[in-house]
Amino acid sequence: MAWIFLIVAGALEVVWAYSMKLSEGFSKPGASAVTIVAMIASFALLSMAMRQLPLGTAYTIWTGIGAVGAFAVGVVVLGEPFSVMRIIAAVMIIGGLVLMKISS
Known about the structure:
It is a single chain. The protein is mainly alpha-helical. The chain has helices at about 1-20, 30-50, 55-75, 85-104. Helix 1 runs antiparallel to helix 2 (about 30-50) and helix 1 (about 1-20) packs across helix 3 (about 55-75). The relative contact order is 0.16. The model has no long low-confidence stretch (mean pLDDT about 95).
């Protein structure tokens, strides 16, 4: 169950990062509210996952999901730059996540 909590927490990190971008510096109430709720839920689920998973594993996976997810949303939804170097960086993060999962 801890891994499910962790994956959902990582997905919510992507949600709050994207909604924070949409909030334009917390000037839009709807997007700001989504940001805050998603942040709280993400941290709560991360905390629940950490009951069973080591700190290093849980935090690395959580931030990795958020980083790669935010990168993907930026490219696909927001039209941010898409380059070979950025793809290689994302693949390296994913490789690190796989290794972290295997090692635990």
